[in-house]
Automatic annotation (TrEMBL), chain A:
Example of a GO MF term: transcription cis-regulatory region binding
GO CC, any one term: cytosol
Pfam families in the record: Response_reg, Trans_reg_C
High-level lineage: Bacteria, Pseudomonadati, Bacteroidota, Flavobacteriia, Flavobacteriales
Organism: Flavobacterium micromati
Protein name: DNA-binding response regulator, OmpR family, contains REC and winged-helix (WHTH) domain
From TrEMBL, chain B:
Protein name: histidine kinase
Positions of the Histidine kinase domain: 159-340
Transmembrane spans: 73-94
Keyword entries, A-Z: Kinase, Membrane, Phosphoprotein, Transferase, Transmembrane, Transmembrane helix
PANTHER family noted in UniProt: SENSOR HISTIDINE KINASE TRCS, SENSOR HISTIDINE KINASE YKOH
One GO molecular-function entry: phosphorelay sensor kinase activity
Keyword Cytoplasm: no
SMART domains noted in UniProt: HATPase_c, HisKA
Highest taxon, organism lineage: Bacteria
Leader sequence residues: none
Reactions catalysed, as given in the entry: ATP + protein L-histidine = ADP + protein N-phospho-L-histidine
Cellular component GO terms held in the UniProt record: plasma membrane
Pfam families the record matches: HATPase_c, HisKA
């Protein structure tokens, strides 16, 4: 996948480029409004990650440019402002998603994948990993072509795991993905273990490989490279 | 007093024997008047006089009633005149002062209507009275400074949040990257996760403080009519997992529907914070009761078996538990939202339950 990262903070650039680069994505960076504008005109990207507050320009103005010249390009706003108005404005202008900083890199990765899948699938949206086939639109999972029943949370977990396969995922990142901001106030996330445990049980019962490995006290890895 | 030679006097003359002397006396006497048909008071002089060798007894009297009436009339006329004069003066005074203070009054109205959050800022105009002109120009100076400061402060809180979140985002990103290194042992990874947790907490505090200052600055202007029951249902669904985890019983006791006039985003935060509060400070198999009665929403929960301190419970960074994740701003935000929307919020401890009641003064809402 070809991704353009429009971000003026060098260390942020490095982190995101590194994480997304782990999966052979091509990540180009633009430091400011003007270079972002040029890159958008010349190249075609699957996805643009856009910071709103940029040197010499507002990121919101880039959205229109992108949508006019390359309507298939997905846009995710990554903003430190977390302002409700900016979010509404951005989405109205044609951005596909809004991720307030600070975020977990696996979260960003999952959102990029979901967005690109939505924008590019031909016919049926499907994720295939070895014996597993996930249909996000219908929230259906087939293992060895046989359907299994997952709860909504378990399905979301599985999609998130697959998007970040072979990576270490902290349990807090999972909590934030599943419960968002509303999880802020809570201290006891034991039930995340239950959700993962149930998911794992259901997968194993359908003769699926044991992909989910827990790292005690830290989180999980969805290992497909055994 | 009584002048003998004055006209209009009545005179009585009677010849008397020679040699009798009546000394001159002046006295008040009552005489019957045929005209008035009553006894009226008279002043009378009596004396004797010898005229042409004859001795006469002479009485001269005059009714004093005319004098009394005159006094009365004079008194009444004067009083009327005085009253009239007073009224006219008062009227003229009021008129003139109204005219004179008109520019002052308009300045006063301007100050009363002044809102620092206004978009269409209008300056006071100068007028022909020097003092008032001066007053207006100093008020203009003051208000424009206030608006300037306010805007700067608004920008500052937003920029501060931006500036804080970016380094936090960098720390978080680096931790995510470090965790992917294969060379790390478990201990190192745990350290990294602890660092990450502290970073998340810092970011949450930052977000909450920003929200508080935004509410204080009245940056949530748009108000909607928010129905509470559907909102509660939504909040309950969002927190379903936390409710199930503690096996809490969630009960509605609503006898009526209730609306608040409030910004919908803020209303969600208000209700969500209260419900999460009720979940968090509950014990296993506890209970949460939501009731709407007499235009009052009451969220009550079981929990600690002693009342909380009513005076400090809504204060910032007032922690009610040793919970690490709690940043002690949830109820402060609730209080701030309630106050900004003329919602009365109070805390009670009754029958081993902690009650939070909310009611809005409808008439105060614009």
């Amino acid at each position: 996948m070809k991704i353009l990262l429009v971000e003026d903070e060098i260390e942020m650039q490095k982190s995101i480029t590194h994480y997304l680069g782990l999966e052979k994505n091509i990540v180009e960076v633009a430091n400011d409004f003007n270079s972002a504008y040029e890159k958008i005109q010349v190249y075609e990207y699957d996805c643009v990650l856009l910071d709103i507050t940029l040197p010499n320009g507002n990121g919101l103005d880039l959205i229109k440019t992108i949508k006019n010249s390359r309507p298939k390009t997905g846009i995710i706003i990554i903003s430190a402002k977390n302002s409700f108005d900016d979010k509404i404005d951005g989405l109205n202008l044609g951005a596909d998603d809004y991720l307030p900083k600070p975020f977990y890199l696996p979260e960003l990765n999952a959102r990029i994948k979901a967005l690109i899948r939505r924008n590019n699938f031909d016919g049926v949206d499907v994720i295939i990993i070895n014996e597993m086939a996930l249909y996000p639109d219908e929230r259906k999972v087939l293992i060895h072509t046989l359907p299994i029943t997952l709860t909504s949370k378990e399905f979301d977990l599985l999609v998130y795991f697959i998007a970040n396969k072979n990576r270490v995922i902290q349990k807090n990142a999972l909590v934030e993905h599943l419960w968002g901001d509303s999880a802020d106030q809570f201290d006891n996330f034991d039930f995340i273990y239950n959700h993962v445990k149930n998911l794992r049980k259901k997968l194993l019962a359908a003769n699926c490989n044991d992909y989910i490995q827990s790292i005690y006290g830290i989180g999980y890895t969805f290992k497909t490279e055994l | 007093m009584l002048n003998v030679f004055e006209a209009n006097n009545e005179v009585y003359i009677k010849e008397i024997e020679k040699g009798r002397i009546i000394p001159q006396t002046t006295k008040d006497t009552l005489l019957y008047s045929d005209i008035e048909k009553e006894y009226i008071s008279n002043k009378m002089i009596a004396l004797n006089a010898v005229v042409n060798g004859k001795n006469y007894h002479i009485k001269v009297w005059k009714s004093t009633i005319e004098y009394d009436e005159l006094m009365e009339v004079v008194f009444v006329v004067f009083t009327l005149l005085l009253v009239l004069l007073f009224l006219v003066t008062a009227y003229i005074n009021i008129k003139i002062s109204k005219l004179i203070w008109k520019p002052f009054k308009s300045t006063l109205d301007y100050i009363k209507d002044f809102n620092v959050n206004t978009l269409h800022y209008k300056k006071l105009e100068s007028n022909e009275i020097t003092e008032f002109s001066e007053l207006n120009s100093s008020i203009n100076l003051m208000t424009s400074k206030m608006i300037n400061d306010y805007n700067n402060q608004k920008k500052f809180t937003e920029n501060a949040s931006h500036e804080f979140q970016t380094p936090l985002a960098i720390i978080k990103g680096k931790i995510d990257l470090l965790l992917q290194e294969n060379t790390l042992n478990e201990e190192t990874m745990k350290l990294l996760v602890s660092i990450e947790e502290a970073t998340s907490r810092l970011s949450r505090i930052n977000k909450s403080l920003l929200l508080l200052s935004k509410i204080e600055n009245q940056q949530y202007e748009k108000t909607d009519t928010v129905a509470l029951l559907p909102l509660l249902e939504k909040v309950k669904t969002l927190n379903e997992d936390f409710i199930l985890d503690k096996k809490l019983q969630f009960v509605y006791e609503a006898t009526e529907e209730l609306d608040f006039r409030i910004n919908s985003e803020l209303c969600f935060i208000l209700i969500n914070n209260l419900v999460q509060n009720a979940i968090r400070h509950n014990y296993k198999n506890g209970q949460i009761i939501v009731s709407i009665k007499n235009k009052t929403l009451i969220i009550s929960n079981t929990g600690a078996l002693e009342p909380l301190n009513e005076n400090t419970i809504f204060e910032r960074f007032e922690k009610k538990s040793s919970n690490v994740n709690s940043i002690g701003l949830g109820l402060a935000i609730v209080k701030e939202i309630a106050e900004a929307n003329s919602i009365n919020i109070s805390y009670h401890y009754k029958n081993n339950a902690h009650l939070f009641s909310l009611s809005q003064f409808k008439n105060m809402v614009t």
